Amino acid sequence: MRYAYAITAALLLGGTAIAVTSSPNVGAQVAQNEGMQAAAPAGAPVSLADMVEKLQPAVVNISTKQRVQVQNPFAGTPFGDLFGQGQPQTRQAQSLGSGFLISADGYIVTNNHVVAPGAQGATVDSITVTLTNREEYEAKLVGRDPATDLAVLKITAKKPLPFVKFGDSTKARVGDWVVAIGNPFALSGTVTAGIISALHRGTGGTYDKFIQTDASINQGNSGGPMFDMRGNVIGINSQILSPSGGNVGIGFAIPSEQAAPIIETLRKGESVKRGYLGIQISPLGEDLADSLGLPKNSGEFVQGVEPGKGADKAGIKAGDVIVSVSGRNVTVDENLSSIVANQPIGGSVPIVLIRNGKRITVNATVGERPSEDELNSFAQTQDGDDGDNLQQQNPGDATKQSLGISALPLTPTIIRQLGIPADTRGIVIAAVDPSTDAGAKGLRRGDVILTANNQPVTTQAELDRAVKQVEAQGRTAILLQILRRGSQPAYLPVRLRDK
């Protein structure tokens, strides 16, 4: 390569000499990049070096040592006695991530998943924090909030430590420049830059309000800070979207507006408390909105109400659509769970909802959100196929209906077969056309349809009439309330077949 470059340089010099000799009016040529300096984008520095130099010392590397119990691979073999048959084996595991100091006395912010056990049955033995000057400290876990994936650590040093402070992420705009500092793939002190790609981005979590960025975020960046151009922390890098596991320009950071108050609570050694109404909700997507005759994403749909909780006492019912709480509209960017979570526990809040097309206002008392284990007991569970012993019916009959569903009246015998409450009223699905939306959404033989368009149905004819009413109103989906053994009744919008 050196030889090739030498020849190229010689040819260029030779060409220059010929040009100068043959045309005395042409000035001496210079390299294209001689004396060049790129103009900085408006509001951005020419270089990030000065800012990064000040910020880097506050960013730390976090590693954990864990013990994981695994099944003895020799159990049940001739070597079982030799290697301790029946005794679980313990292996060592590690995790790596990032964090940043928020005080001179050693408080550190990171993601909960950076310091949490990495597998079922694992325990974290130790957490080590490494500074940019390679000093290592044993860290204590002060507090964690799995719901928002945040954690606070504490280290003790003999001298004040460099730290950074939170900025105001509510002022962030799409297109603003941001800088991420962290330890991707254990490469400590790595700096990347980009812009804010989107705000209020959800990835499926209850409290998701992520800042999306195209700054390179990789494994090991988790828990590290995202800075604005003033050097303030406006986000905590938390997730990436990647089919390969590497950076593809889609990273997510927890905004400081959400993180800062939670971090302050954890720092005090307190647990995070959130408001709770006791309802199970679904987004008001296109099919569900169409089945109700409402604009999509204009609220959230109530699937179920927990007895004795605030929503139940306020008169909120399954099938309602909640559009605002305490004057704040329920939208895709600000979902119902996050609004309620931030309401004062014990306070009364006005809730605007839509029921059967009418707008109603109720007042509900906000309770305290239970633990995740308690919530799971209220959540729906799936069960195996029910109705194997149902009277068989030609699936071709189902294709004659707009829904692709063929159903039978409930009888005491069928109720016993399905294992559902004896007082259940509805019709049981005998066949579903798999090519229809009903089939695509998982309806199956043995499911019970309780209502259609919020009206009770006890025969196939009543279901057909409800479908015709929907078609007459120009809507393309119908709202069914479905009961499946072992589950709470749930509402499901089903799109009608095109004719």
TrEMBL record:
Catalytic class of the enzyme: hydrolase
Chain residue ranges for the region called Disordered: 366-402
Signal peptide limits: 1-19
SUPFAM superfamilies, per the entry: PDZ domain-like (SSF50156), Trypsin-like serine proteases (SSF50494)
PDZ domain: residues covered: 262-339, 407-485
Source species, domain of life: Bacteria
The protein's Enzyme Commission number: 3.4.21.107
GO molecular function: serine-type endopeptidase activity
SMART domains named among the record's database cross-references: PDZ
Active site per the UniProt annotation: 113, 149, 222
Catalytic activity: Acts on substrates that are at least partially unfolded. The cleavage site P1 residue is normally between a pair of hydrophobic residues, such as Val-|-Val
InterPro entries in the record: PDZ, PDZ_sf, Pept_S1C_Do, Peptidase_S1_PA, Peptidase_S1C
Keyword flag Cell membrane: no
Positions annotated to bind substrate: 113, 149, 220-222
Localisation: Periplasm
Alphabetical UniProt keywords: Hydrolase, Periplasm, Protease, Repeat, Serine protease, Signal, Stress response
Pfam families per record: PDZ_2, Trypsin_2
UniProt family annotation: Belongs to the peptidase S1C family.
This protein's name: Probable periplasmic serine endoprotease DegP-like
Species in which this protein is naturally found: Sphingobium fontiphilum
